[in-house]
Amino acid sequence: MAAEYEEPDMGDIQRRMEGALTALKHEFLSLRTGRASASMVEPVMVDAYGTSTPINQIGTVNVPESRMIAINIWDKSLVSKAEKAIRESGLGINPVVDGTIIRLPIPELNEERRRELTKVASQYAEHARVAVRNVRRDGMDALKKAKSNGMPEDDQKIWTDEIQAATDKGIAAVDAALEHKQAEIMQV
């Protein structure tokens, strides 16, 4: 008699857990560490031509030096809108306009701001851990369904261990990324 149950798709489970880590690393890029990075301005949206547009789609973003971001806005009529969007973005950076170029000098982070950023990084990491655990829960639910469809208990134990191992690996990767980011933030 052929088995009627369906085994969990470990490839899908691992892909989704890795997706949580990728999303976390992308969120970490938006955290300011005292060094300039073009990814810092990625979340900034400018009202261009009646549409909310990412700033990197209305100009060229460069990092000419370690504490400066320069954005060369292609359309002169959008310079003031871009400047306004940067001021209102919550980046805590005062833009300096020079013709069509907007310069963003990155100030040195003080101790208090560094501590705040490490807390924000911890929150991002916790969201990623929750995402990994949600994937684990989905895998365990699939196992319960397979058990009710006739999966032998030995197979269920093997799959449970495999899903748990993937979860542990995912959580460890999130923790390692957080530790690295916090060290980067606290570095003076």
Automatic annotation (TrEMBL):
Q: Does the record's keyword annotation contain Protease?
A: no
Which Pfam families does its entry note?
RRF
Question: Which residue ranges run through the membrane?
Answer: none
Q: Where is this gene product found? A: Cytoplasm
Residue intervals of the Ribosome recycling factor domain: 24-186
Q: Which UniProt keywords apply?
A: Cytoplasm, Protein biosynthesis
Coiled-coil boundaries: none
Keyword Transcription regulation in annotation: no
Subcellular location, principal: cytoplasm
Checking CDD domains in the record gives: RRF
The entry's family comment says: Belongs to the RRF family.
| HAMAP family in the cross-refs | RRF (MF_00040)
- Summarize the protein's role: Responsible for the release of ribosomes from messenger RNA at the termination of protein biosynthesis. May increase the efficiency of translation by recycling ribosomes from one round of translation to another.
Could you tell me what this protein is called?
Ribosome-recycling factor
Q: Per the UniProt entry, what species is this protein from, by scientific name?
A: Tropicimonas omnivorans
Q: What is the lineage of its organism?
A: Bacteria, Pseudomonadati, Pseudomonadota, Alphaproteobacteria, Rhodobacterales
